[in-house]
């Protein structure tokens, strides 16, 4: 027996999908559709093509972004997949941010990219979207955008670069950028050699091929289930990257056709359990400290608070299993050869929630079982033989960081993880640049370098300046590492004993703002302690003597910088704009470690 359908309900339904979705407002919906079709037909589309589910594909290609240099070829492959599955691919541009081409910092622009991506996805008629990103801030921005919407998305990274050799030494961006620059500063290599290295550090398009922020985020997104298995590690220029792109296009159409699109929306996939899995992987891969800020921002948009103490607790039970720079010795192409992220997840199974749904339609546990794993492994260790016995990141607290700070102890010097030293203070990035190499700088190898006013508001944009250079005179004397502390971030590719993200930041008149030259500081990672040996009354007196944050920041009267500096949140809640984050008071689920 057939059931008569309500024509009004049918009409409403069809207005929610495809070309009829989100009609421009002229006060006459039929005319809006008529006009939309008239214009799009200028591109040669037929009526039957326009009746298909529409799959948006974000185009983040830019001449300024070599990490996205393969995007045109990826887009062709995604379109091929969409067409194979009966969908209509529509490519649209968004902002593209490259780490080295963003002034003052890429982080300053991440929230702008998130706004751009969200509103383009909201305002154009798309039934599902493939998010093509890669360079550090781009995927986080896309995920923040997706988290604010409720349509199916699949993320696919551009993939890591390949490496090359320099006089037999394998090189990759950008751990080796810093390693060789350190050698040059110390006088170990000359101008001719550093110029030669400069031409070899990034030998193909793609993202940095160490476990920097881009690789870390790609691994976390694949773990969380918002990208298809295999997408994190396949190199940018290999055929596999384009086959995965085609597959992603096909799957996007299937998601768009699901009866209830919310089944695969970011809100349905990025559950507290899925985010916990991603954080577990962050520890196990020795991932970037930046990723902690980004996932916190994505979670916050979903109303989920990521508790830093829970992150620390997770890390105490999860070893670092991936031997990649900067914590280890190898590169992403080696992780790919070992079976990619799924091979890592297989080792981590006891630590993961395996019942989480992924965009493939399978659970994470099913995906892990299905994955092909290499028997001859080079970089993925078993739990009983880890690279580092506990997770890569630790959360520090103390009177210098009341709301927390982070250290990547898997990439630090073991002998500096417990250290007491005299503060050598730089009040800003400018002050650092002026004095760090001065022969007159009063500094010893046992001192602690302190950088102030490099946080989210202060810099602004929380630059990757936390990796303060070793003062030249010490570098030339052979010093390779010192304890360095700041409210800045650092590149995920960097190595060293570096305390970051001190919250509240200096510009908010946090205790970091009142550290003075000669104060003694204690770092004790095993106790999770960052302590200024100045009594509380004196710290309070120094803070009270400061001008207010608003006076010190000199916020301009208009423009994006005003928006940024008046609304950006602190690192412990993700550095998003405060008006983009829903209230998390009381009702938000809090992630729990296992
Ligand atoms: Fe783009 Fe490293 S500079 S990923």
From TrEMBL:
Dihydroxy-acid/6-phosphogluconate dehydratase N-terminal domain spans which residues? Answer: 52-366
Q: Name one GO molecular function term.
A: metal ion binding
**Entry keyword set:** Iron, Iron-sulfur, Lyase, Metal-binding
**Which domain of life, per UniProt?**
Bacteria
InterPro entries for this protein:
Dihydro-acid_dehy_C, DiOHA_6PGluconate_deHydtase_CS, ILV_EDD_C, ILV_EDD_N, IlvD/EDD_N, Sugar_Degrad_Dehydratases
Q: Name one Pfam family in it.
A: ILV_EDD_C
Dihydroxy-acid/6-phosphogluconate dehydratase C-terminal domain mapped to chain residues: 378-575
Which family does this protein fall into? Belongs to the IlvD/Edd family.
What is the name of this protein? Dihydroxy-acid dehydratase
Q: What is the lineage of its organism?
A: Bacteria, Pseudomonadati, Pseudomonadota, Betaproteobacteria, Burkholderiales
